[in-house]
């Protein structure tokens, strides 16, 4: 009597044959997302302001191409997208919101702090959508629990609260291209370490003890969510928080 065992089907890469552009892809969450997208079969194109960091990042993940420019330079941004053929996904990790007490800002500073993040997202959307395939997604970064008020962020809380409805409204305008927002809590990146300086270890210890997941959220966690949103074509107009349960214990 002969027996046969079933051979499990090999899992196909979720982004095979697709192209992912990461605006701000030379480090942190952007670079980790590029790495994850490559592991799922995608070609990746990285942009950033620092040419040396960009080249190093591209070599590290095997990027197809790079472009060094400041994403806030609207002319450079337009030239970049005009030089692309069809792409599938665009993730924006460049240019986070400004922090600071509301009353410490003058009118120009407040206007800039409130508008910069939204204006950048809008300009990238305006330029990217014409070269994106239907079903692909634009992916913005924001804060977990946007709209919740707490001491510290100041005007950044107001800027972050505008992103979910902004994303949902754009989803209707650019369909069938998709658009989604990731709301992150504390993520243990090089930028976080530079901002906190010698207090970074104290913050990590606090989060390991306090968060329900009993560990600190890292760039790879956010990258896994980003690639899932890219691959799942039923997701558009949504905000997806990733904070290790920080909102539950704050």
Low-confidence stretches: none
Strand content: 5-15%
Q: Which whole number gives the mean pLDDT?
A: 89
Q: Which outline best applies?
A: globular
Number of separate helices: 9
CATH architecture: 3-Layer(aba) Sandwich
Give me the CATH superfamily: NAD(P)-binding Rossmann-like Domain
Span of the ends, CA to CA: 63 Å
Q: Rg to the nearest angstrom?
A: 19 Å
In short:
By secondary structure, the chain is α/β, with parallel strands linked by helices. It has helices at residues 28-39, 51-61, 74-82, 107-128, 155-174, 190-196, 200-210, 219-231, 246-249; strands at 19-23, 43-48, 65-68, 89-92, 137-143, 178-184, 239-242.
Task: Describe the protein.
Helix content is 44%, strand content 15%. With 250 residues, it is α/β, with parallel strands linked by helices. The protein has a single domain (19-241), classed as Rossmann fold (3-Layer(aba) Sandwich). It has a seven-stranded parallel beta sheet with strand order 3-2-1-4-5-6-7, sandwiched between helices. Helix 3 runs parallel beside helix 4 (107-128) and helix 4 (107-128) packs parallel to helix 5. The longest helix has 22 residues, at 107-128.
Topology summary:
Blueprint: E1 19-23, H1 28-39, E2 43-48, H2 51-61, E3 65-68, H3 74-82, E4 89-92, H4 107-128, E5 137-143, H5 155-174, E6 178-184, H6 190-196, H7 200-210, H8 219-231, E7 239-242, H9 246-249
Parallel strand pairs: 1-2, 1-4, 2-3, 4-5, 5-6, 6-7
Helix pairs in contact: 1-8, 3-4, 4-5
């Amino acid at each position: 009597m002969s027996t046969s065992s079933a051979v499990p089907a090999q899992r196909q890469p979720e982004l095979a044959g697709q192209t992912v552009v990461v605006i701000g892809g030379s480090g942190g969450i952007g670079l980790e997302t590029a790495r994850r997208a490559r592991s799922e079969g995608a070609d990746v194109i990285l942009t950033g302001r620092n040419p040396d960091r960009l080249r190093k990042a591209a070599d590290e993940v095997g990027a197809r191409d790079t472009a060094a420019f400041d994403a806030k330079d609207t002319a450079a941004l337009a030239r970049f997208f005009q030089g692309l053929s069809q792409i599938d996904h665009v993730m924006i990790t460049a240019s986070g919101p400004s922090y600071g007490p509301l009353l410490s800002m003058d009118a120009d500073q407040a206007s800039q702090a409130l508008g910069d993040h939204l204006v950048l997202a809008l300009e990238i959307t305006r330029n990217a959508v014409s070269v994106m395939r239907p079903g692909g997604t634009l992916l913005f970064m924001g804060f977990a629990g946007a709209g919740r008020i707490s001491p510290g962020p100041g005007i950044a809380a107001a800027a972050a609260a505008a992103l979910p409805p902004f994303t949902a409204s754009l989803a209707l305008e650019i369909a069938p291209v998709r658009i989604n927002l990731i709301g992150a809590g504390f993520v243990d990146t090089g930028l976080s370490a530079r901002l906190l300086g010698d207090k970074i270890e104290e913050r990590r210890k606090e989060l390991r003890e306090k968060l329900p997941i009993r560990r600190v959220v890292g760039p790879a966690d956010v990258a896994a969510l980003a690639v899932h949103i890219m691959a799942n074509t039923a997701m558009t107009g949504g905000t997806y928080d990733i904070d290790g349960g920080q909102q539950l214990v704050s």
